[in-house]
Please model this.
Amino acid sequence: MTTRSTREDIVRAADDLFYRQGYEHTSFADIAEAVGISRGNFYYHFRTKDEILDAVIEARLAERRLLMERWEIEGKDPQDRIRSFIFILIANCDKIMRYGCPIGTLSGELAKLNHSSQGEANRLFTLFRTWLARQFALLGREADADALAMHLLARSQGVATLANAFRDEAFVRAEVQAMVDWLTAQAPETAPS
Amino acid sequence: MTTRSTREDIVRAADDLFYRQGYEHTSFADIAEAVGISRGNFYYHFRTKDEILDAVIEARLAERRLLMERWEIEGKDPQDRIRSFIFILIANCDKIMRYGCPIGTLSGELAKLNHSSQGEANRLFTLFRTWLARQFALLGREADADALAMHLLARSQGVATLANAFRDEAFVRAEVQAMVDWLTAQAPETAPS
Model:
């Protein structure tokens, strides 16, 4: 049990450090120090930073899946659920203003490193894309559900990038409102519940 | 003269490497190798990577200022000029799909490194923001010119991030068309020429 928990502690610390200071900039030593374990204990769990990266991506996927399940349960209709996605920008605004979006910045960093795990990291985008597309289909927009999902993902990513650059919460709130208005306009008729 | 040109070669090579593989991942040795000069010659021009970074940002600012001057000359009205901005996504599509937007990714990387030059790098965003806001004001939208500029910058950044993740040119083209349509809707009356 102790072994299992140490592994989880490593993944959690690495997830946080990759987000706050970047994958490339984070060393084994940084992660070991954050967890408070010896190098030996560390290597028992992970041999390479790539192995940790893959575990971090899996952990992020699992966490986001839970988030979406909650949105599905709590949202009374597809529009309500899509709004939950849009509101991530408000809920995580402080972190986004400091470090950007965890998914967008990791994908971008891995692209520049020409890292073989970029495809893995993009599964996070695909998870949101697929979920959003399903909600738009339920909203009666089967024909362009994927395009609407990509459009909303892009707007959300762009707001995160500029929030990180200008650290302007009023801008984030105005753009979130604009996305909600856009969403409302996508379903002029009453949405199916 | 030779000295001046070597300095420019270094800045150009660093600009390219920072864009393609990231600032953190690029070493003095990488840049020296790309330029084909000795370490000694290199240090004569730049002592630290931070000094090179600041020179790269200045070079990017100068280049973008020239670009905007050309848009001002070639664009027959503000709408036409703003369209030139939107079409960067098409003109640089291949590079954006591989490495993202040079401005957004540098700003994001420096934020994570908590690098003192992030403010400098954001001058690139501010340059576009100010220029776009001026065009929207000329379009008769003085009251919300800055908000419109930020909205368009954000959309453009978001498209760049997802283009980099999914490498889907059709998505980029569809979003560019959507931005052009949005722009047209911002000036229902004939724009002042």
Notes: The radius of gyration of chain A is 18 Å. Chain A touches chain B at residues 20-22, 24-25, 98-100, 104-105, 107-109, 111-114, 118, 122, 125, 147, 150-151, 153-159, 161-162, 164-166, 171, 174-175, 178 (CB under 8 Å). Chain A has eleven helices and no strands. Chain A has a mean pLDDT of 94.
